[in-house]
Specification:
With about 525 residues, the chain is an alpha+beta fold. The protein has helices spanning about 10-20, 60-65, 120-130, 165-170, 180-185, 235-245, 260-265, 295-305, 305-310, 345-350, 370-385, 395-405, 420-430, 445-460, 460-480; strands spanning about 40-45, 75-80, 85, 90-95, 100-105, 145-150, 155-160, 200-205, 210-215, 230-235, 250-255, 270-285, 320, 360-365, 385-395, 410-415, 480-495, 500, 500-505, 510, 515.
Length: about 525
Amino acid sequence: MKKMKYMFTLLLFVLILQACSTTDNTNTSKGENNNSKAGEELIILRASDATSLDPHFITDIPSANIIHGKVYETLIAFDKDRNFQPLLAKSWEQVDDTTWTFELNEGIKFHDGTDFNAEAVKTTFDRLFDPATGSPQKDKLSMITEVIVNDTYSVSMKLASPYAGLLSILASNEGSIISPKAIAESGDKLKTAPVGTGPFVFKSWTSGQSIELETNQDYWGNVPAFNKLTFKIVPEDATRIAMVENGEAHISDQIPVTDLARIESSDSISLYRTEGLAVEYIGFNVQDPFLSDVKVRQAISYAVDRESIISGIYENVGTLANSAMSPMVIGYSENVKGYDYNLGEAKKLLAEAGVKEGTTVKILTSDRKERINMAEVIQSQLKGIGLKAEIQVMEYGAYIQEISNKQHQMFIGGWGNATGDGDYNQYNLFHTASQGAPGNHFYYSNPTVDQLIEDARAESDLETREKIYEEALKIELEEAVYIPVRNYEHLAVVSDKVKGFWLDASNYAMVRDVKVSQ
């Protein structure tokens, strides 16, 4: 038996993440006891509403941002440097290649008064794996074959095969531990009324307007230094910034790059920037009759000038992506390359595919300002090869529903890797089992790629894993499943009254240590 808090390969992975990460303007006050109450309400503005508050059904980070680390907690957690830290579990060990044991903290209660213990952990994962639940998150943790209660505060997980990314996903939203009482009594209601162990208790959700959380005065850790956390839905970019600037709110993310100069010149607000794990891309529904021809997808890939999008639309916020993995993600390879801008080659491929000039293709995007602008640029660029692009703009929730139901052709998307591990990227985006709501909105299926992804899951050697992912990434690009555009840089505007706020690399708002001055 080999005891360890951190599996040596995962520790190596984390060190790589640390070497790649950059964070500015941190203002953290972690480790301080915030039990003194100032009575403030912390108001965070959002561009769009959540799609669900049930971690077993959330497939987008903007929704997970409401509950992850706030209402719900996980066995372990990432710290600011992407190191694993104890949370609901006080320690863990890898017993053998396929067995992990977690020793749990005692004296913790869920918001409904239920005790947190090993049975609660087992109940949570049993619900996730139950086919009757119908969770789109099930396959993300499908390597776990059994959760065993050893005693009241000890639980083991048996795996089908070694899985290097286990701790990473257990520290993410998918690893949230849910009240067993809430599961038994009102499982369906968890989509609108979450019950966890976190520092904030769910109060209300007024669709399209706000989600309100109250500080958990009985929280087992340091109680936040404000009484209420409110997420307000304000679709207009300029309005959100103005509300933070004039004191109506404290924080807003999803900041348009066109407003950076305004924010940086303000006396009352600051700009927070941090490198992210996510990649923005142009995706193809490869099962669409028109886009099922790889030559058509390759032609469009050659026709898109990605560098002009980054400079013209994003004002060089973020960097040019060469694949669906950002440089911060374990499994990234600099040897993989996207398509160069080449109109001649694009026209040649369309001719070979028998595509007539004036053929129409639809580009779907959410109503985020930069993405609408990107769609317009792509529309203009495709006109140069004889394609007529029609732009469809939808509110974020409707957009997610559209791509999850295969009712699209091209789409502008992004994958916010929540774990920093390549499996979360590759399995969710490209494995056949993930088609639809779990994340494969390309509706891509390739048995060779499926096998590579599964092989990488079970491989503990970092160098070997990277080679496997590199092979998969090359195939996905050769088959033009998507066009990589931009490695994210996350932005937020923060009132100067706020101290202790930070965004992690997954773009989660970290607020438990925030203090708000009058």
